[in-house]
Amino acid sequence: MKKYLYIFKSELMSNISYTFDMLLGFVGYIIMIFILMTLWQYIYSDPSELINGYTMNETIWYIIITEVLWTGLQGRKLCKKICADIKEGNITYNLNKPYNYIEYILFNHLGDFIYRFIFVFIIGLIFGFIFLGSFPNITILSILGVILSCLFATIINILITTIIGLVSFFIEDAHPLYWVHSKFILILGTLFPPTFFPGIIGTIVKYSPVYASVSAPATLFVKFNLDLFLKVMIIQIFYIIILLIITHLFYRKGAKKLNVNGG
Description:
- By secondary structure, this protein is mainly alpha-helical.
- It has one domain.
- Helices cover 79% and strands 0% of the residues.
- Helix 5 (75-87) runs parallel beside helix 8 and helix 9 runs parallel beside helix 11 (209-223).
């Protein structure tokens, strides 16, 4: 575990060196949040009106948190790195290293995520408060619960992206799969809370990886209660275990294929 914590720390310190560049990159995040805020302000004729159980402020705060997670993740960058490792043969050097490639990717990208997440989260809170004039009903307990859920959500996102990247072992280009995945996240997770989807679609969304990786922390932020928190923890831990198993299976099969074909 010490070697993976060292990988995490190294990547975290590396990001601190590029704080100014990171701040410049947040301009796109602010623009996106402003556009979505304006859209939902137009949809709600009355800010206190309830649409599928959400007021205007709750909906906008939900979107702010989902965008914080998605912007902080930089999943396209991770997918591109894994695809390049496989296609350029760099991954072969990791086969004999004293660490597992999957754990390396996980802790390395967590280090990349944490520093960016802190900045985006603070900017999102400031921007949201300026625009909306208030926070949801938050407490120390709810903040801790949301932070833990954000961590689990990020692990799930990293594992899903890693699986997509590992598909490059078997097909020419996995980037289109990541594009499809990102659109599912946008439509089913970022733009709309789960209660906005009707009938069986809404039920599927509430128990899907999209909910566990994006919607759950945002839902906790605006509607925190202990029952919901426990439900979210169960769903997220379930997906972390399942995705870890799938990721390792993909990697082992891909590495075996690489060895059979001579690297």
